[in-house]
Amino acid sequence: MKDIVDNRRRIGLFRKLRILGLVMRENGIAWTTCFTVYYLASSLAEKAYGAMDRLRHEKSLPGLNSVKLNAEIWNQWDWSAGGEEWTQSEDWKRSLLKNVLQKHVPPKSRILEIGPGGGRWTEHLLPLAEHLSALDISQTCVDRCRERFSSFENAEFKVTDGSSLEGVDDGSIDVIWSFDVFVHINSREVEKYAAEFSRVLKPGGKGIIHHGTLGGKKGGWRSDMTADRFSEILESHSLAVTSQFKEWEDQGTTFQAGLYEDTITMFEKGASAAN
């Protein structure tokens, strides 16, 4: 159905009316009325979203990604699914764990996780961690993770202000991990986070961050970030981008990093950038 709506411009108005008549004859008034409402509402929504995007960029508006809104949204979120509502499939998650997380997070690492949410990735980071610091903008998430992982003495969970890593010591972190978090963080806050990455990483330490690439043009409440902008910000803080990828291959299957052309960016702090 959605492909018909997305390609509505390929059929002229007169032919649309002819098709609508045929639709009614074959499906009846009730079904056709529902379809017509959906068709017209989607057109209005498309125009509204385009206007929102234009205003956001013209006036430098935060959209739904300000620090205050992020805190409010994720404090009120129903975390009963533990964040698995964003898992594309069990195969996708297994492959991401094998080809990204477990491949690039060495055992006995001092790990910083930004945005653990309900602990979706935390449970897989903990077995690799000498120590795990997990910071979240949501007190709800911090409380949930403290309860869920209370038996782990090598983990601590704290609330962050949405742009800093307060309480994390300089040069103390081997790996920074964040997934499904920076898709909601605007470039203004990413700039502040990047300075903090450079501060807390050890020389040779690395980061693995999943983020948006389309400047908020798709995906409803996504941030204003692009892949190029993310790289520029990191490099301006002496963090070298080592890899950016939107997909990976695993035994003949191609897996996507996210639903809206999201990217996973990997970076490293060089020895020359040591504080």
Which key features would you list for this structure?
9 strands, 21% strand, 8 helices, 275 residues, 7-stranded mixed β-sheet, Rossmann fold, elongated, two-stranded antiparallel ribbon
Account of the 3D structure:
The protein is an alpha/beta fold. It has 2 domains: 57 residues; 207 residues, Rossmann fold.
Q: What is the ordering of alpha helices and beta strands?
A: HHHHEHEHEEHEHEEEE
Integer-rounded radius of gyration:
22 Å
Spatial shape: elongated
What is the second-level CATH architecture of the largest domain? Answer: 3-Layer(aba) Sandwich
End-to-end separation? 55 Å
- CATH fold-level assignment of the largest domain: Rossmann fold
* Strand line-up across the major sheet: 3-2-1-4-5-9-6
What is the total number of structural domains? 2
Number of DSSP-assigned strands: 9
Question: Structural class from helices and strands?
Answer: alpha/beta
What's the helix count?
Answer: 8
Biggest sheet statistics: 7 strands, mixed
Give the percentage of residues in beta strands.
Answer: 15-25%
Give the topology, please.
Layout: H1 2-6, H2 13-58, H3 67-76, H4 90-104, E1 109-114, H5 122-125, E2 129-136, H6 139-148, E3 155-159, E4 173-178, H7 187-200, E5 201-211, H8 227-236, E6 239-245, E7 247-250, E8 253-256, E9 263-269
Parallel strand pairs: 1-2, 1-4, 2-3, 4-5
Antiparallel strand pairs: 5-9, 6-9, 7-8
Helix pairs in contact: 7-8
Give a quick summary of the entry.
The chain is 41% helix and 21% strand. It is α/β, with parallel strands linked by helices and 275 residues long.
